[in-house]
Specification:
Blueprint: E1 3-5, H1 11-19, E2 26-30, H2 42-46, E3 50-54, H3 58-67, E4 72-74, E5 77-78, E6 83-89, H4 101-109, E7 115-122, H5 124-131, E8 138-141, H6 147-152, E9 163-167, H7 183-186, E10 190-195, E11 199-204, E12 224-226, H8 227-332, H9 335-339, H10 341-354, H11 358-368, H12 370-382, H13 384-398, H14 420-439
Parallel strand pairs: 1-12, 2-3, 2-8, 3-4, 5-7, 8-9
Antiparallel strand pairs: 6-7, 9-11, 10-11
Helix pairs in contact: 12-13
Length: 440
């Protein structure tokens, strides 16, 4: 399994090389800063270790509380004695908070903003007395120039960390400052083991076997990678996975697009067929309409022709009527017409007298006249013989002879009561039927 190093200068790689054989070990991290970034203890916590994390800045302490539930997380500063101190923080640079005012002034001179806050102070000896119940496998101190005060507050006779890792350069510098505090270590039964360019390493006299693991910087044989590289690889793998997912998504979108294109093509063909069918229908309807129009035109032409014929007939009739009218006017105005007027009157009278039933009509009109009846009837009543004759004559005139057949045709008994006109028509019909039978 590849070891992931979270620390700033691969300190956790060297510690794991020396102490990796210890199961569920214990550590103390003074100036822990961040639970992940540049953390010396993160890799050990992941492997079941636990310990004490001392970080006075409230924001970092809260992160430790959330991410290190097995650890004892203290929002204090470690010092030579219990009390309170002013901590000078550089908000825009992680890990530069220091209780040393000279260090703060150096950062301020470089243009950094400094924030001051009061924090409680406890000695390491008091912290160990409260929270440590067994071995301390390593103690790491990184307090930006305040390492001497931290060491003065530790009781190395009672508490014996196996390995000490102490930052030994001025903040943000290669210049070492261990001369001011190293006597607080090497006089307590610890031997110098290694300087890695940032920290000085010490091993307790009672664990000389650990000395063999120092003297060589972390290298390929430690089988480790930095947290940043691991994260970059993970991000790369995530990006590759995301790229693969994107490619698959693109392929899926391409398949969907192809399916949609096929569906669109089918819809286009169906629409074209429908449009073609509608166009054919419209063409048929147009042809039918043209045929109907042609038929109507023919009918209109016929009507026009008939109308022209009627107009011509009307014209001819009008011409004829005008001719007749002219001839009639000429006739009426002629001398012969005027000379023959008495003859025409006599002819009309003769024709009127020759019409059958004239005497009956005259008698009927006279007898129907109330004035004539008032004058004649009283006279006839005074002369009975004359009255009888006149009545008989009137009766004979009013009634047609009932038994006389027309044109010598016998009238059946049941038809003898018919008027003479009806009997005449009947006789004509019988005569026409007889002629038809004789011809056949």
């Amino acid at each position: 399994m590849t070891f992931v190093s979270y620390s700033q200068n691969a300190e956790d790689v060297l510690l794991w090389r020396a102490l990796g054989h210890v199961p569920n070990g214990f550590y103390i991290d003074v100036g822990a800063s961040d639970p992940v970034e540049h953390s010396v203890t993160k890799a050990f916590y992941e492997r079941g270790w636990s310990g004490i994390s001392i970080e006075p800045l409230p924001s970092f302490h809260e992160q430790f509380q959330q991410e290190r539930p097995r650890d004892v997380n203290l929002a204090i500063a470690a010092g030579a004695e219990d009390g309170e101190l002013t901590l000078y923080d550089v908000p825009n640079v992680r890990g530069w908070a220091s209780p040393d005012q000279a260090v703060a002034e150096m950062h301020r001179a470089e243009g950094h903003t400094i924030a001051e806050l009061k924090v409680p102070v406890r000695t390491l000896a008091a912290v160990c007395a409260e929270h440590v119940r067994g071995e301390i496998h390593f103690l790491k101190i990184d307090v930006e120039g305040f390492e001497g005060d931290v060491l003065r507050g530790m009781d190395f006779k009672r508490w014996r960390p196996w390995v000490l890792v102490i930052e030994a350069t001025l903040p943000n510098s290669r210049e070492t400052n261990h001369a001011s505090w190293e006597h607080l270590v090497d006089t307590q039964g610890y031997r110098f083991a290694w300087f890695d360019g940032l920290n000085r390493w010490y091993v307790a006299d009672e664990h000389p076997e650990l000395m063999q693991h120092f003297g060589i910087q972390p290298n390929v044989f430690d089988e480790y990678i930095s947290y940043h590289l691991d994260r970059a690889w993970a991000n790369g793998e995530a990006q590759v996975a995301a790229l693969a997912a994107s490619e698959e998504r693109l392929r899926e979108l391409a398949r969907q697009a192809e399916a949609q294109a096929q569906y669109a093509e089918q819809q286009r063909i169906a629409l074209e067929d429908e449009l073609r069918s509608e166009q054919d229908q419209r063409e048929r309807e147009a042809r039918d309409a043209q045929e109907q129009i042609a038929l109507l035109n023919e009918r209109v032409a016929m009507k026009d022709e008939q109308l022209a014929h009627v107009h011509e007939s009307a014209r001819q009739l009008s011409d004829w009527a005008r001719g007749v009218d002219e001839r009639l006017k000429a006739t009426l105005a002629s001398t012969s017409w005027k000379v023959t007027r008495p003859l025409r009157g006599a002819g009309s009278l003769v024709q009127a007298l020759r019409r059958p039933g004239l005497a009956r009509r005259v008698v009927n009109r006279i007898t129907a006249n109330e004035r004539v009846r008032r004058l004649v009837i009283p006279v006839l009543r005074r002369h009975p013989a004359i009255n009888e004759r006149v009545s008989a004559s009137i009766a004979s005139i009013k009634l047609d002879p009932p038994q006389q057949a027309a044109f010598g045709v016998e009238v059946p008994e049941e038809l003898k009561g018919l008027p003479q006109s009806a009997r005449t028509v009947l006789a004509d019909l019988q005569r026409a039927r007889g002629n038809q039978q004789s011809d056949s």
